Amino acid sequence: MSGMFITFEGPDGCGKSTITSLVYENIKDKYDVIKTREPGGTEISEKIRELILDVNNSLITDRTEALLYAAARAQHVEEKIIPALEEEKIVLCERFVLSSIAYQGYGRGLGEKDIKMINDFATGNIKPDITFLFDTKEQVSVNRKLKAGGDRLENSGEDFHKKVNEAYKELSKRDDYYIIDATKSIEEVLQSCLNVLEVKLGGIK
Questions:
Q1: Is CATH 3.40.50.300 correct for 4-198?
Q2: Nearest to 19, CA basis, from 31, 6, 2
Q3: Reduced to 3 DSSP states, what percent helix, strand and coil does the chain have, rounded to the nearest 5?
Q4: Which of 41, 65, 155, 201 gives a 20 to 30 Å CA spacing to 99?
Q5: Does the predicted model carry a pTM greater than 0.70?
Q6: Cis before 39? omega within 30
Q7: If you average pLDDT over residues 121-133, what whole number do you get?
Q8: Dihedral sign, Cα of residue 29, residue 178, residue 172, residue 105
Q9: 3-class SS at 35?
């Protein structure tokens, strides 16, 4: 595979969807690029997404939740991501394994090791070439979504989301990610991402 796999990570409400779409719009005329998301991205994965996030499914256990995310990801990777990379496309993906580590590993208390293990199996060990990690600077950004109702995960409680935010804070100390200040304006956040891509892709129109 000689395409490029780029992921956008961070807590709920940090602006990932907006920036992923804007990056796509900024590079689509120069590069062969697709935009996708997790959980979801394929018909089967979207159905699993609906199951996971449905507020009526309150009996889903933490381990079941983690496995459902991994199942959706396995389908997504095999059906969509790998074929695109084999066609030398750029794949922009909103969320990937890092989200499972933060939400299920830390937020649900299942541990990073086990979450990484099931996702290594689910993805065939595929790793992003670039991961943008959005730093919300201690802000609990999920509150914006809760005003609109929120899904099952968004309604998991303040303590859960504090754990997730702490997880991202700890994960951001590693050297594997490009840390993006998500408290800045949309234009500034977008430009921060484009500056990295300009170097990695050899220039952006």
A1: yes
A2: 6
A3: 50, 15, 35
A4: 201
A5: yes
A6: yes
A7: 97
A8: positive
A9: strand
